[in-house]
Write a structure and sequence with these properties.
By secondary structure, the chain is an alpha+beta fold. It has 4 helices and 17 strands. Strand 4 and strand 5 form a beta hairpin.
């Protein structure tokens, strides 16, 4: 791969707000009429936006006693809180019944029809810091290209995944900005492969995933998305996730206390990864599927500009920048 041009990242904050509003509206247009129908006992109205598969699973003869029992036991729904965006096709609405609070989890298909509907015991939303309070270092040494990173889908492919919204994908480079040598058919051709991955800050190891083999470049493993990974909790609502590590390279275990800069494994190509790279993001809980991403700023970052290092403090790198871990 030849050296990529260094680009300037543009932050589309107004566009971001618009996209999120449209995503929320998509669920509200389905859930609010359904709640009105539940309160009225309009059982056919409840099913108005059910998909065919949902109607087959929960036909009127089954849905009528279910929703009738729900209202009889807990009363009508008096209030819906703002939704919690779980994924592009799932959202959770805390619903205040007269005698209980439930989380209504809704899944939609591409035509905005309900394909999944659950009434779950309510769990309070986990606090999401505006940004990291912990002082973070880049989780590596040497030169790395920011393949994905920033605040919009244009510069960050992770943007629409709630827990990875501000995630980074880093590719190791040589001094000339190349990410590989040779044909790129083997993992060893990539400069990232086998490089040390380090703890970005002090913390406790909460989760370790190991035993996932490294992919051949170009082949991805969607069945073990993170591949080999380490989670480090720095404080109550700040957890680092470092993923796609090399098979059998992880040097820490659950419960270990790690220090900033400590080697925790080697960069690999495991999981949903097409070439060796390091995935890094910060989220508000060690429970991966319940997390919400936190925008993270590194304490000190050297960025290569015109072949020269520029030191930046309190900085969050963006796509196509080459950063230097020291």
């Amino acid at each position: 791969m030849t050296k990529l041009c260094i680009g300037l990242a543009v932050f589309f904050s107004l566009l971001l707000l618009s996209v999120e509003k449209k995503a929320t509206d998509r669920f509200e247009k389905v859930v609010k009429p359904m709640v009105e129908a539940i309160n009225k006992g309009d059982y056919e109205g409840i099913q108005r936006d059910f998909s065919k598969s949902m109607l087959d699973t929960l036909p009127l003869e089954k849905s009528k006693p279910f929703f009738g029992s729900l209202i009889a036991n807990y009363g009508k729904i008096r209030k819906l809180d703002n939704s919690r965006y779980v994924s592009p096709d799932e959202a959770i609405f805390p619903a205040h019944f007269e005698r209980a609070i439930f989380d209504i989890k809704v899944a939609l298909d591409g035509q905005d029809k309900i394909i999944g509907l659950l009434f779950l015991q309510h769990t309070a939303e986990i606090a999401v810091p505006d940004r990291n309070e912990t002082k973070l270092s880049l989780p590596f040494r040497g030169n790395w290209l920011v393949l994905w990173g920033g605040d919009s889908a244009e510069v960050n492919s992770h943007h629409d995944v709630p827990n990875q919204r501000f995630a980074f994908d880093f590719l190791g480079t040589d001094p000339n900005g190349n990410t590989r040598k040779g044909t790129g058919e083997g993992n060893g051709d990539y400069f990232a492969f086998g490089r040390s991955v380090r703890a970005p800050a002090d913390g406790n190891v909460t989760d370790v995933i190991n035993g996932v083999r490294d992919n051949k470049p170009g082949s991805m493993n969607p069945f073990s998305v993170l591949g080999n990974a380490v989670f480090i909790q720095h404080r109550e609502n700040e957890v680092s996730v470092l993923a796609h590590l090399k098979l059998d390279s992880i040097t820490v275990k659950v419960g270990d206390r790690v220090r900033r800069g400590q080697v925790i494994g080697l960069c690999g190509n495991s999981g949903n990864s097409s070439e060796p790279h390091l995935h890094y993001h910060l989220q508000n809980t060690p429970i991966i599927q319940d997390g919400t991403g936190i925008k993270c700023f590194f304490d000190k970052v050297s960025v290569l500009v015109g072949g020269k290092k520029e030191l930046k403090t309190n900085y969050s790198p963006t796509k196509n920048e080459i950063v230097v871990g020291e």
